[in-house]
């Protein structure tokens, strides 16, 4: 199996997405969940960058690159919204962790 740069980007992107998805479900702290979403978005961006790659001599496709730039802006805005909501939850409840859903006694 020959590792091309596009394949390396795809594998790294899939790995980052799985790592972020795991952290999203495992951790109950809000900041860690926000960071997990950012890691997942970075994985998706790497897969899009790999989709733009054609060959070392050819010019890469600009459409996936434009989608990545748009995605970076959207990811930054959603991260700021998540941080604002986490700050609101902290101010309202005094905690930054979500309940696990089990009844507490």
What can be said about this structure in brief?
This protein is mostly helical and 105 residues long. It has helices spanning 5-26, 30-52, 62-93.
CATH architecture annotation: Orthogonal Bundle
Structural class: mainly alpha
Instruction: Count the domains.
Output: 1
CATH class: Mainly Alpha
Relative helix content: over 70%
- What Rg, in angstroms, do the CA atoms define? 18 Å
Main pleated sheet: none
Q: Can you tell me about this structure?
A:
By secondary structure, the protein is mainly alpha-helical. It has one domain (5-93): Helix Hairpins (Orthogonal Bundle), CATH 1.10.287.3510. It has helices at 5-26, 30-52, 62-93. The longest helix has 32 residues, at 62-93. It starts with a helix and ends in a 12-residue tail after the last helix. The mean pLDDT is 89.
Helix-strand layout with pairing:
Layout: H1 5-26, H2 30-52, H3 62-93
Which descriptors would you attach to this protein?
single chain; 105 residues; Helix Hairpins; elongated; CPA3_antiporter_subunitC
């Amino acid at each position: 199996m020959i590792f091309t740069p596009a394949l390396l980007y795809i594998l790294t992107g899939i790995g980052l997405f799985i790592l972020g998805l795991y952290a999203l479900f495992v951790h109950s702290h809000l900041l860690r969940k926000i960071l997990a979403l950012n890691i997942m978005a970075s994985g998706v961006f790497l897969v899009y960058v790999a989709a733009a790659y054609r060959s070392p001599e050819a010019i890469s496709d600009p459409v996936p690159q434009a989608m990545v730039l748009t995605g970076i802006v959207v990811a930054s805005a959603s991260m700021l919204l998540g941080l604002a909501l986490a700050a609101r939850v902290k101010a309202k409840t005094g905690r930054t962790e979500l309940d696990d859903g089990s009844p507490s006694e």
